[in-house]
Design brief:
This protein is of the alpha/beta class and about 400 residues long. Helix content is about 35%, strand content about 15%. α5 runs parallel beside α6. The longest helix is centred in the last third of the chain and has 17 residues.
């Protein structure tokens, strides 16, 4: 067997505690110190299953996963919660329980690609709600109402579900969930709110927003090690998405009445993911109270980066979320002439121990400031200004 195993030895991430990480999908997933201890303790395989008596991870009493599920439901103001392998898994579960192959669901045109994949997996048609275009790319509730009517005209029936991305991954726009929920209620259509970039970093009240379902990402927004997600449902729909098995082996007679069908019996989040999600929960509950401070910090950075020639923040203004995208034509101009092309910016930032800007990207730059202190943000702004000056780009 000719395999070089050396490349797998002593694996370490290049980013350590001295670095500033701006990665848009990682800021909300940064582990607090107490969670890192849980990660080590529960790192072995299915490590939370030592005292599994019920056959389902969400019913465990030791560690207190059952209590945790109930507390997360309270935190989100929903009725029932299950843990999934990510928001994408939660969406696939919901689609499979609400719709039949060939049915149509209405989604926003800034949905994460996994929304499309989950629909494709279930054999569904999608109808996209258009955004308003450059430079704000807003998703308007009126456009949802128009799209639902279009689906009814074309298919003769309402869509099987409406999905809205609460905050999109491209521009960080905060959508008007409550207004879209009213559209769904007017047409008697279940409303799914994809809160992958909101629940866990900012206050999210599911019932106040009118959601029948919330899908959440633990590794993006709940300070957890991935992959893990949360599926929250109201009482009206809980029996459908969390239905129990009725299958019986025709020869053996075996049955699994405690297992939930849509979650393959027991959610695949044993060990490290669920342990870190639990360990970070007190941290998460406290940090959402400081959301206004987080928004003020990203607005400060927007002002500083827009001092660079050509830089412009895209998406809604002023920012209401910490994920931000900038068009940066001056840096892109440098990239066209630089021997390292678009990689120059990534490398210049790494020299300054700043990570998270996608390698090779200079035309559009996406970052997330969540959880960074003002000292760190000043270093980020100074780094961008220094790089601009070194390539003769004007700073206002």
């Amino acid at each position: 067997m000719e395999i070089n195993l050396d490349k797998y030895k002593n694996l370490r991430r290049e980013i350590d505690e001295g670095w500033i990480n701006l990665h848009p999908i990682q800021r909300g997933g940064m582990l607090p110190p107490e969670t890192r201890q849980a990660l080590l303790s529960f790192g072995d395989g299915y490590s939370v299953c030592d005292y599994c008596l019920e056959g389902r991870v969400d019913l465990l009493k030791k560690p207190p996963v059952k209590d945790f599920a109930e507390d997360v439901a309270k935190f989100l103001n929903m009725d029932e919660v299950r843990f999934t392998s990510g928001a994408r898994h939660a969406k696939a579960i919901i689609f499979g329980c609400l719709a039949e192959p060939g049915d149509t669901i209405v989604i926003d045109s800034l949905s994460h690609y996994t929304t499309y994949i989950a629909a494709e997996l279930r054999g569904l048609r999608i109808a996209e709600v258009p955004h308003t275009g450059y430079p704000e790319f807003r998703i308007e509730p009126d456009a949802y109402a128009a799209k639902v009517e279009e689906v009814k005209r074309e298919t003769g029936k309402p869509p099987a579900a409406i999905l809205l991305t609460h905050v999109d991954y491209k521009y960080g726009n905060l959508a008007d969930a409550a207004s879209v929920a009213r559209v769904a209620k007017q047409h008697d259509v279940p409303f799914i709110l994809n809160a992958a970039y909101t629940a866990g970093v900012m206050p999210v009240d599911g019932k106040q927003l009118g959601a029948d379902f919330l899908t959440c990402s633990g590794h993006k927004s709940w300070a957890a090690s991935g992959p893990i997600g949360i599926l929250a449902a109201t009482e009206e729909f809980a029996d459908r998405v969390f239905r129990k098995s009725s299958m019986r082996g025709p020869w053996s007679g075996r049955t699994f009445p405690q297992k939930e069908v849509c979650l393959f019996g027991c959610p695949p989040v044993f060990g490290t993911p669920i342990a870190t999600l639990m360990a970070s929960f007190p941290h998460v509950v406290e940090r959402v109270k400081r959301w206004d401070e987080e928004v003020e910090k990203v607005r400060w950075l927007v002002r500083e980066l827009e001092r660079i020639e050509g830089f412009r923040q895209l998406g809604e203004r002023p920012k209401r979320h910490t994920l931000a995208t900038f068009e940066s034509p001056s840096f892109h101009r440098v990239a066209r002439e630089h021997k390292r092309r678009g990689f120059f910016l990534h490398e210049e930032l790494r020299k300054r121990k700043i990570a998270g800007i996608h390698p090779g990207m200079t035309k559009l730059i996406t970052l997330n400031t969540y959880g960074l202190g003002m000292d760190q943000l000043r270093k980020v702004a100074d780094a961008f200004h220094e790089i601009a000056k070194s390539y003769n780009i004007e700073i206002k």
